[in-house]
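Entry 0007
Protein: chorismate synthase
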Amino acid sequence: MVILEGIPAGLRLSSEEIDRELKRRQVGYGRSPRMQIEKDEAEILSGIRGGKTLGSPIALMIKNLDWKNWQKMMAVEDSDMNSENIQILTRPRPGHADLAGVIKYNLDDVRDVLERASARETAARVAVGAICKKFLAELDLFIYSRVIQIGTVKDTPGWEPTADNYQLIENSPLRCLSKAAEEEIVALIDLAAKEGDSLGGVFEIMVTNLPVGLGSYIQWDLKLDARLARAL
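Output (C-alpha cells):
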C-alpha cells in the first residue's frame, strides 16, 4: 500500500501509465531473480474517478505474488508459528540495513529487518513516482537518466537529452549510450555473479525546463539541495 497526497484535481491518469513505469523497474541486466516472480500491477483504490484525479489522497496497492510462499514464515499470530515454519537467518547481507537493524532492535532473526529493508519497497515509490512524472509533464518538466559507470567501466561522457539519445538509453539493458561500454559491463556483471560478488555504479539524472527559484536561500532546510538530500 502507498498513499500520495498533493496532486491537484483534474490530472488525467490511468493504471496503464503507472504499470508502464513498474514494468520499466523490472528490466535491466543482472536484476534480482525476484523480478521474474513478481508481475507488478498497481490497483488504484482511491483519489481517481473517471480517469481524473480528485485532489484527494491517491491510494495504490501492489500485490506481492511471492507472499503466499512466506505466509507461515512471517505469520502475524504467535499461535500460527512453530519451529517447522521458522528458518532463522543469522547472516546479514553486506551493504544492507540487516546488521544495523538486528543490533538496534536486539533481534535474533535477520529476516525481521530484511523483509522491510528490501528493494521490493521501491515498487511503491515507482508507482507514485509515475503519477508525479505525469503531473510534471503537464508543466513541461521532463526527467532523464542514464548509467555512466558500473564497476570500472565508464560510459560515454557528456550527452544531450535528445529523443534519439534517450531512445538508445531506453533500449539498453543497462541504460548506457555506448554499445561498447554496455558489452564490457555485461561481461563484468557476469564475472561478479560467478564470483558471488556485486558491483557499484554511478548514474546521472537530468531535468529539463526547470524554473528558476525552486527551494529557498532564506533557511538551510528549505534549500533545494537540502530537500533533495532529505528525499534520498
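Curator remark: The mean pLDDT is 89. Strands lie at 2-4, 42-46, 48-49, 52-53, 58-62, 142-150, 153-154, 201-208.
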